[in-house]
Design brief:
The protein is α/β, with parallel strands linked by helices and 184 residues long. 29% of the residues lie in helices and 24% in strands. The chain has helices at 19-22, 28-44, 94-100, 113-126, 151-162; strands at 9-15, 49-54, 80-83, 103-111, 130-139, 166-167, 170-175. It has a seven-stranded mixed sheet with strand order 3-2-1-4-5-7-6. A hairpin with a 2-residue loop joins strand 6 and strand 7.
């Protein structure tokens, strides 16, 4: 139901599952395993897999912390989008990558729930994409010492409010890994 005409395909987005980003994240191993399962499902069903990799002053491009976790291997044929802002669309070629693949529906996974995930799902939705957040395939670190709720509450709240998002001619939703399909 996307507002993007002639873009019927669904793509999996894997956002910032980098060594330095998810090292101390909530349920890191389970989330990474769920993302790996989704990558395999997307590949099997012929859906694009788009990888997003963050860098900034605290996460230097080319450093070990900047690298993707070893459990997830990007194929050379799969696009890699480099970003420096929370929203994966800001100052990147993500829109061109998705348009070129005919994608109007995004299935979103990765880290950090309360930063890059939220920024990207909102950024995609206002740009006309249908957006499915995979509820058990995103995570964040514990920022409670700075006043944030514990990570499990951040994740649960994001899942709760995203399933209620609506806008003209767009769909938002939350699905569990086991329920995700990429059939167009």
């Amino acid at each position: 139901m996307t507002t993007l005409s002639e873009r019927p395909r669904t793509a999996l987005m894997v956002i910032d599952v980098q060594k330095g980003v998810v090292a101390g994240s909530h349920q890191r191993d389970t989330v990474v395993a769920n993302i790996a399962a989704l990558v395999e499902t997307a590949r099997t069903q012929g859906a694009p897999v788009v990888w997003v990799q963050h860098s900034d002053e605290g996460l230097e491009k080319g450093s070990e912390a900047w690298e993707y976790v070893p459990e997830l291997a990007r194929r050379d044929s799969e696009p890699l989008v480099h970003k420096s802002y929370g929203d994966s669309f800001e100052d990147t070629d993500l829109e061109e990558v998705l348009a070129g693949a005919g994608v109007g529906h995004l299935v979103v996974t990765g880290a950090q729930t309360d930063a890059c995930i939220r920024s990207t799902i909102h950024g995609a939705f206002v740009r006309g994409y249908d957006v499915t957040l995979v509820g058990d395939a995103h995570t964040t670190e514990d920022l409670s010492q700075w006043g944030a709720p514990p990570p499990e509450q951040v994740i649960a709240h994001t899942n709760l409010y995203w399933q209620e998002q609506s806008a003209p001619a767009r769909k938002a939703g939350v699905a569990e890994t086991k329920d995700v399909t990429f059939s167009d």
